[in-house]
Design brief:
CATH architecture: Alpha-Beta Barrel
Number of helices: 11
CATH class: Alpha Beta
Shape: globular
CATH superfamily: Aldolase class I
Distance between the termini: 33 Å
CATH topology: TIM Barrel
Bound molecules: 3-phosphoglyceric acid
Radius of gyration: 16 Å
Order of helices and strands: HEHEHEHEHEEHEHHEHEHH
Strand order of the largest sheet: 5-4-3-2-1-9
Largest sheet: 6 strands, parallel
């Protein structure tokens, strides 16, 4: 438990400095590495690579070597197998849309920073009881947005819990989330849309990433 908590703290320190995490659904290794090179070039040094596609594990493994400056996490980690695949491939943290106690317990055992997804007080309490102090708030906008999250945080502030909202977060509302002290970072797919990658719209992706970096700098 102690190692887990130490590593979660280190992950939160990094994510709180980076503030915006692109959530990536990657068709293949090539797009994954190209996306990482855009992130490196534009100086947005993080990504959540989702296990919604087969490419996730190989992208994390290759990108961890090729882009050591990027803080790479795994997303959509729905089971213990994918948790281990992410960890062994070199992911530095992992998140999931929901709260699965089996996955949380395994992450605690491995000391692997993991943020389960919650959007109710009951889920938050169950996750915290297992030792989690880093939670994903999903689906953020549909669940009630910043207003709901602030109410959800209120009774747990004294426990030092931190959140990463995703789901409906965009360049239009990211600043509103990031103004909440308990929000370490926000995540979203608007920074590297799969459709844009498929269409080769790398300039549009680069612009969205540059805009996100400018937003973070304007908040500092
Ligand atoms: C996630 O996995 O965190 C969400 O799918 C991201 O949601 P978005 O597509 O609304 O950014």
């Amino acid at each position: 438990m102690e190692l887990f908590q130490q590593n979660v703290k280190a992950a939160l320190d990094r994510l709180s400095a980076i503030r915006i995490v692109p959530v990536l659904v990657l068709d293949n290794l090539e797009d994954g590495l190209k996306m990482c090179s855009v992130l490196q070039e534009k100086q947005l040094p993080a990504a959540e690579i989702t296990f919604r596609t087969e490419a996730a594990e190989s992208v994390i493994r290759a990108a961890a070597k090729e882009f050591p400056g990027l803080y790479l996490g795994a997303g959509t980690v729905l089971n213990v197998r994918d948790l281990h695949r992410a960890f062994e491939a070199g992911a530095k943290f992992a998140v999931a849309p929901g709260f699965n106690p089996t996955v949380v317990k395994e992450a605690v055992k491995c000391g692997f920073p993991f943020a389960p997804g919650v959007c109710t007080p009951s889920e938050a309490e169950q996750a915290m009881e297992l030792g989690c102090r880093f939670l994903k708030y999903f689906p953020a906008e549909a669940a009630g947005g910043v207003k709901f999250l602030k109410s959800l945080i209120a009774p747990y502030k004294h426990l030092g819990v931190r959140f990463m909202p995703t789901g409906g977060v965009t360049s239009a509302n990211a600043a509103e989330y990031l103004a909440v002290p308990e929000i370490a970072a926000v995540g979203g797919t608007w920074l590297g849309k799969t459709a844009d990658m498929r269409a080769g719209n790398w300039d549009a992706i680069g612009q969205a990433v540059a805009d996100a970096v400018a937003l973070v700098r304007s908040l500092a």
